[in-house]
Specification:
Blueprint: H1 2-42, E1 46-57, E2 60-61, E3 65-72, E4 76-81, E5 90-94, E6 102-108, E7 111-117, H2 122-125, H3 137-154, E8 158-161, E9 165-167, E10 170-178, E11 191-197, E12 203-209, E13 215-226, H4 237-242
Antiparallel strand pairs: 1-2, 1-3, 1-13, 3-4, 4-5, 5-6, 6-7, 8-10, 9-10, 10-11, 11-12, 12-13
Length: about 240
C-alpha cells in the first residue's frame, strides 16, 4: 500500500513539474512574440494590405468589408473599399492635416459625394466599433500586449496554442487567449483567437469575443507587405478631390 502511495505521489510530482515547465515555456514564448512584433512594427515605416473587417455593431454582426489599406508613419491612412458593401468608397486621414478630419469620397446614385468628417463623429463612426485613428497593426498589438502582460502578471490569462495552419496563404500559429469572464477586471475582451504569421511575427487575423462569447470583431490582413516603401504621394488628398 505504501509503495502504491509513493508511486502515486511520484507521478503527481512529475506531472506538476512538467506542467510548470510547459507553462513557463508558453509564457516565455508569448512574451517573446510580443517583443518581436513590437520591435518589428517600431522599425516598419509603412505597410499595405487587403484589410478584411467584420464587426458586431448594436447587436448585429455586419457583412464583411474588404478594403485596400495603406498605412505610413507617423500616422497616414488611405483606405479604398474594393468589394461590396461600400465598393468604391475612399477615405484619407493624415494626422495634423485637414484639421484632423477624414476626407471621405462616397459614390452613390447621384454621383460622388465628398465630405470632411471628424473621426469620432456620428457619420464617420456609423457601422464601426473604432475610429480610423485606432486602425493598424501597432494599435492591435498594443491592445493585446497590454492585456496579455496584465493577464500573465495576475495569473488570470489562459493561453492555448493551436495547431499550425494556413491563413491567406501564410503559415500561421493560432493562439487562443482567455481572460476572466468579467468585464470589471478591465480586460479588452473575454476571448480572442490570434493567427500569428510565423515568418513575419505579426498577427494577420484576429477574432475577438465579448463577455457572452459572441464574435464582435474579426480583422484580417491579407497580402501584408511590411516596409512597403510608401511615400507622401500615396496619401495625396488632391487625388481624391480630383475625382469628386
Amino acid at each position: 500500500m505504501q509503495k502504491v502511495i509513493r508511486f502515486t505521489l511520484t507521478l503527481w510530482l512529475l506531472s506538476f513539474i512538467i506542467c510548470s515547465l510547459c507553462h513557463g515555456k508558453e509564457r516565455i514564448s508569448l512574451e517573446d512574440w510580443l517583443r518581436q512584433a513590437e520591435a518589428l512594427l517600431q522599425k516598419t515605416d509603412s505597410y499595405s494590405a487587403v484589410f478584411h473587417k467584420r464587426e458586431r455593431v448594436k447587436g448585429w454582426l455586419k457583412v464583411k468589408e474588404t478594403v485596400s489599406l495603406k498605412f505610413k508613419k507617423p500616422f497616414k491612412v488611405y483606405m479604398k473599399w474594393i468589394e461590396d458593401p461600400g465598393k468604391g468608397r475612399e477615405v484619407l486621414y493624415v494626422d495634423g492635416w485637414n484639421n484632423n478630419r477624414i476626407l471621405l469620397r462616397e459614390p452613390g446614385f447621384l454621383g460622388v459625394v465628398g465630405m470632411n468628417l471628424p473621426p469620432q463623429g456620428a457619420i464617420a463612426m456609423k457601422g464601426s466599433r473604432h475610429p480610423i485613428t485606432e486602425i493598424g497593426l501597432e494599435h492591435l498589438v498594443r491592445i493585446f500586449g497590454d492585456n496579455i502582460r496584465k493577464g500573465l502578471r495576475t495569473g488570470e490569462l489562459k493561453y492555448i496554442r493551436g495547431q499550425e495552419g494556413m491563413v491567406y496563404g501564410r503559415r500561421i500559429q493560432p493562439l487562443e487567449l482567455i481572460f476572466p469572464r468579467d468585464l470589471r477586471n478591465g480586460y479588452y475582451c473575454y476571448r480572442s483567437i490570434i493567427s500569428l504569421d510565423i515568418e513575419k511575427r505579426v498577427p494577420i487575423h484576429v477574432q475577438v469575443f465579448d463577455w457572452d462569447d459572441l464574435l464582435i470583431e474579426d480583422y484580417g490582413y491579407e497580402d501584408l507587405l511590411l516596409d512597403a516603401g510608401l511615400t507622401d504621394a500615396d496619401f495625396d488628398p488632391r487625388k481624391l478631390r480630383e475625382r469628386l
